[in-house]
Amino acid sequence: MKIGILGAGQLGRMLALAGYPLNLDFVFLDPATEACAAPLGSHIQAGFDDERALTEFCVSVDVASFEFENVSAESAGFVASRIPLHPSPAALTAGQDRLHEKQLFQRLGIPVPAHAAISSLEGLRQAVRQLGLPAVLKTRRMGYDGKGQAVLRSESELEAAWERLGSQPLILEQFIPFEREVSCLAVRAQDGQMRFYPLVANVHRDGILRTAIPTLADPLQREGEDYARRVAEQLDYVGVLAFEFFVAGGRLLANEIAPRVHNSGHWSIEGAECSQFENHLRAVAGLPLGGTRLRGASAMVNLIGDAPPVAELAALPGVHVHLYGKTPKPQRKIGHVTVTADHHDELLALLAPVQTLVERYAG
Ligand code: ATP
Ligand code: MG
Ligand code: MG
Question: Which residues bind ATP (predicted)?
Fold first, then answer.
């Protein structure tokens, strides 16, 4: 079976790596010359809105999915009118606008941070009076890794933030002094069956995910699954859905969804019965879902910025190194390591030297 993937970054690369044992072949569409998934399949190098390229993509594959979440509604619709596309264009676009995404959560009874749509400096001033400070100003569309955001801590910062971001539609969110951040990775098959990975505890710095550790019997597991199920069923979702939450006052507050495999699920390659990448492909290809249970304890640490000390990392016990074949650049995710152990205590002991080493090179 030939799977078409819109986007050819590291998520596409890891999807292909998971698909090889299932004898799946891959065609990627991506405008980048150095698309890191390209060596693992065929690469149609073109923009996501190029109709000729999209047509070539559709005739080359049996079924399609995406690893880039900002494919336009028009392009997704173009593909879906020709071949099966999972998740659907409606599911893809549900999370593309932060305001509409929050409205969807609210309709489904899922709590969200207090927020307001912003389209003028005066509107921003007024919203700050209502929501208070600190607050987070974000572009409604296209942000990732904390890009297109400004944390506002005093009135004096409003004008500069507006100057920087105000050319686009914005949203202001109350700053949540969260106890921790977690994500729920869910997978839904074409027949509606769902499976959930254990909630993942995530640590971000400068808006970028640094470490992700699957939890054991988290008290919020059921709540996370419930919210992910509500969204997935509403969208008739097929594939892996990632749902990011803040934990505040011991309850979940929805941050955002990603309609694709997710950085906070990379540990599942070594750490779960069936990885998020294989499970996404199973759902897209119409196969039964695989198990989401843990195989021991694991943790993922992102490699960001400078070329990492690969040999030093590989020499550490329990470490699995994943490099994406991307050119190192400040703030860029160029790989990750997963640390595995039989038990949680052992995991923490093995993780400490990995974090020390990675922090030294992180940029
Ligand atoms: P991703 O790379 O996950 O798609 P993104 O650019 O879409 O990220 P968010 O998930 O909105 O951005 O924010 C990135 C991080 O910034 C969050 O994980 C959290 O640590 C912090 N953050 C965002 N919004 C808030 C908020 N309202 N209150 C407190 N912290 C926040
Ligand atoms: Mg996001
Ligand atoms: Mg996020």
Answer: 98, 138, 143-149, 173-176, 181, 204, 255-256
Are residues 155 and 189 both part of a single domain?
no
Q: Prior bond to 31 cis, omega within 30?
A: no
Number of domains in the chain: 3
What confidence tens digit (pLDDT) does each residue in 141-184 have?
A: 999 999 999 999 999 999 999 999 999 999 999 999 999 999 99
Ligand 1 site, residue 101, Cβ cutoff 6 A: no
Judged by its nearest atom, the ligand closest to the C-alpha of residue 133 is 1
Return the bridge partners of 191, or none.
none
**Number of the ligand 1 atom closest to the C-alpha atom of 173:** 27
CA distance 246 to 183: 9
Same domain, 164 and 218: no
Q: Band the pLDDT of 363: cuts 50, 70, 90.
A: low
**Domain assignment of residue 139, given as a range:** 114-174
Ligand 1 pocket residue status of 173, Cβ below 6 Å: yes
Q: Give tens-digit pLDDT for 254-287.
A: 999 999 999 999 999 999 999 999 999 999 999 9
Task: Measure CA 259 to chain center.
Answer: 8
- How many A from CA of 257 to the centre of ligand 3? 8
Query: What is the spatial distance between Cα 128 and Cα 148, in angstroms, rounded to a whole number?
Result: 18
